[in-house]
Amino acid sequence: MISLRSVLQRKPRRRFYGDGILGGLLLLLVIIPALLAPWLPLPDPLKNDLVAAFSAPGGQHLLGTDQLGRDLLSRILAGTRLSLMVVLLAAVIAAVIGSVLGMIAGYTGGWLDALIMRLMDIQLAVPFILLILLVMALFGASLTNIILIMGVTSWAIYARVARAKTLEIRELEYIESVKAMGFSTPRILLRHVLPNLMTPLIVLLTLDIPRLIVLEASIGFLGMGIQPPTPTLGNLIGEGRSYMLLAQWLVLYPGLVIAALVIGCNLLGDSLLRKTHTRLD
């Protein structure tokens, strides 16, 4: 006999899998073509063909062409690949910096904890987009600068989660045992604290990547990111906005790709978060 409790427990589980599968499919639908683009029979994304300028979607150009006759599908795939590389590298940098500082703050406590927390408060108080635009104006919009700036300005949320979890872990009995055995603080953090932080940090990473995608696109849209003719999702929309009345597809399709990436990451991250909470319960 099936109890009411078992039925209530199954519904969230089906929802977990449904959200995760839908999010994963959206991401695969965008990421796989972008990764395979160099080996697909597509036009050069940087090649101009003024005769074919503003060609409507269809025929030889499935998504149409831009003001210089460049194939929009090729440029979107190339821009997606570059934008994802920037976002993923920036997310890894932010996660590493935030995790290290959060573990140190939560494990050591005292004045070092207070100092890191104040730095965290300052970081969270400054609007990301204004800080990044200021740094871009000072140091230029090279690919390396964009990755470093986005990573260095995004560490605070990872540090907050890592610190909160470390405060719980350091009170556990096995931590007291390894302390009594004379293990050094770096060894305890790397071998006994960090493995317990991986699950919440991975979940946080999937939830933070959409913010970085939108941030990178916003920088490109404002003309402060990677400069044309190199395509990114943001500067494709920035270039196409001047021709929206003539060629709406120049803005529509890059916008749909950004939406698919953001929605896919959010669905996948929410699914992982609910599964984690359910497992803990």
Account of the protein in words:
The protein is mainly alpha-helical and 281 residues long. It has one domain: Orthogonal Bundle (MetI-like fold). The protein is built from ten helices and no strands. The longest helix has 37 residues. InterPro entries: BP-dependent_transpt_permease, MetI-like, MetI-like_sf. Keywords: Cell inner membrane, Cell membrane, Membrane, Transmembrane, Transmembrane helix, Transport. Pfam families: BPD_transp_1. It comes from Rahnella laticis. Its main location: membrane.
Q: What is the CATH class?
A: Mainly Alpha
- Helix amount: over 70%
Low-confidence stretches: 1-12
Q: Overall pLDDT, averaged?
A: 84
Please specify the SSE layout and strand pairing.
Blueprint: H1 4-36, H2 72-108, H3 110-125, H4 128-139, H5 143-152, H6 156-169, H7 173-180, H8 185-221, H9 233-240, H10 249-280
Helix pairs in contact: 1-2, 1-10, 2-3, 2-5, 2-6, 2-8, 3-6, 4-5, 6-8, 8-9, 8-10, 9-10
Main location: membrane
Pfam families: BPD_transp_1
Transmembrane segments: 21-40, 82-107, 119-139, 201-226, 246-269
